[in-house]
Amino acid sequence: MIYDISRLLNANTPTWPGDTPFSYNLTWSQEETGSVNVGQITTSCHTATHVDAPFHFKDSGMTIEQLPLELFVGDALVVDVTTKGEITPKDFDGLDLSEVRRVLLKTETWTDDVFPEKIPIIHPDLGPFFLKHGIELLGVDLPSVDPLDSKTLDTHHSLLQNGVHILEGLTLTDVKPGMYRLTALPLKIEGADGSPVRAILEG
Known about the structure:
Layout: E1 2-4, E2 23-28, H1 30-33, E3 38-42, E4 50-52, E5 73-80, E6 86-87, E7 102-106, E8 121-122, H2 126-133, E9 137-140, H3 154-161, E10 165-168, E11 178-183, E12 194-196, E13 200-202
Parallel strand pairs: 5-7, 6-8, 7-9, 9-10
Antiparallel strand pairs: 1-13, 2-3, 4-10, 4-12, 5-11, 11-13
Subunit structure: Homodimer.
Binding site for Zn(2+) 1: 46, 50, 52, 168
Binding site for Zn(2+) 2: 52, 156, 168
C-alpha cells in the first residue's frame, strides 16, 4: 500500500508567516496556444512538505542538489509521539533502532490548513542520540524541528553537527507506527536552501 504523506499545494497552503505563499497560474491556455496548457508556480522552498538543506541555516552548509539521494529513499521508522509536548531520546526507549537510518515523528499537531501557533519541542539531544544509533534523516509532521519563534535553531544545528538531515511538513494522520519504505526526493535546484518533495511511504 502507498501512503501519500505530502501536504497539498494550493492557494490555501499554510506558509511560514511572511514567506512567499504558493501559487499556480496558467500562463498559456490550450485555447491560446492551440495545443497545450502551460502553468507556472511560485513558492518558498520551505512551503508544505520539504527538505531543509544545511545551507538553509548555515552559510557554509550543503545546498539541496549536493545532498546524497540515498538519504531520502529507503526504510523509515514511524514513531508515534502524539501525546508529547517535548520529544527526547527517552521517547525511543524500547524501540529497536539497530537497522534504522530514517525516523519520522508523528505528532498530529498540524492537521489542518492553518499555520500552527505552537508545536512540540524536538530536543537538541536527539542529534547525538541519532548519531549514536546511525540515524541520518529525521522527518516531522511539523513546519520546523525548532520552536516557531527560535532564532538560534538549536535543534537544526544539533542535527547537522551529528549528520542528521531534515524533512519537514509531513502528514502522517493515516499512518500507523512501524517500518515503511520512504521516498521523498528533493528537486535538483542548484544552490537552493531547500526543496518541496512528494513524499510517500510504502508498507
